[in-house]
Amino acid sequence: MVGARRSNDWGFPRWRSYGSDQAATAQRTCDRHLCDEPGLCPAPKASNSPDRWYFCQKHAAEYNSKWDYFEGLDKAEAEERVKNENRDNAGYAEAAHYGWAGSGDGTRSGDEMRALEALELEADADFDAIKKSFRAKAKEVHPDVKPGDAAAAQEFQKIQVAYEVLKQAEERREWKG
């Protein structure tokens, strides 16, 4: 085996400089006029064209902000292209774990988030805002205020349960040590 030779470039100490046998590699510069930054970001010259511009990050961001995939197409051609893209990527889906979280910052449970929605509050509402919202809603739909109204009674029960869920969660959060 003539081609299989062991390199003499192993072990320590290394007696010659690193990379002495390699020439410097040429780097592509940005295609924007008068820009000397490295052109590391390829961008298409036209829709469905294999030709590429090579921009620095700054000019690539500028180019992408003005890019229109459907430029030069009439409405029917654009719709046809969208239909073909959707047909071709039908086997792919967004990762499911992005949908698991729901709204909020993770400090509240799903039941607490639903209770906040029932009281029409944001995910970061404090307990004083919860009490205030509950009182205002209870005054609107209380069975004494709207006697005989089944929808109001059901809404009152819903906000009452929501308040209880949030109250218990707040009590669990407070340390009474």
From TrEMBL:
InterPro entries in the record: DnaJ_domain (IPR001623), EMIR (IPR052423), J_dom_sf (IPR036869)
Entry coiled-coil feature ranges: none
Domain J: 114-177
SUPFAM superfamilies from the UniProt entry: Chaperone J-domain
Residues annotated as signal peptide: none
Protein name from the UniProt record: DnaJ domain-containing protein
Organism of this sequence: Allopontixanthobacter sediminis
